[in-house]
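Progress note, sequence design subtask.
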């Protein structure tokens, strides 16, 4: 599958900015990320979803992490289908938990 330019452009900037960074540069980065994230039209394909999972930071990224999570979950196949290690990014662990909860025991 191909990865759209909008997804590549968003991912090129790396993980979402941290809520702990209150610098002026962080504000500009956040505005850019928000614009780039909203430029990606769902649904994403499986390759795009896997690519986007690399963009989660360690916190909510001023709410953008939730938007990113829902975008990733718009893919036809969940990108996280096996339990990640405890040390994995908390958003990757959340994707796993949400996937696991779709198949109740």
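Output:
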């Amino acid at each position: 599958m191909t990865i759209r330019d909008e997804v590549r452009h968003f991912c090129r900037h790396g993980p979402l900015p941290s809520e702990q960074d209150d610098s002026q540069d962080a504000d500009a980065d956040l505005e850019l990320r928000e614009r780039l994230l909203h430029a990606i039209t769902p649904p994403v394909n499986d390759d795009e979803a896997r690519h986007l999972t690399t963009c989660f930071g360690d916190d909510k990224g001023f709410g953008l992490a939730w938007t990113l999570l829902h975008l990733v979950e718009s893919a036809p196949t969940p990108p996280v289908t096996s339990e990640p290690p405890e040390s994995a990014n908390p958003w990757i662990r959340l994707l796993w938990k949400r996937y696991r909860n779709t198949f109740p025991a």
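The chain has five helices and no strands. Work on this subtask will continue into the next period as scheduled.
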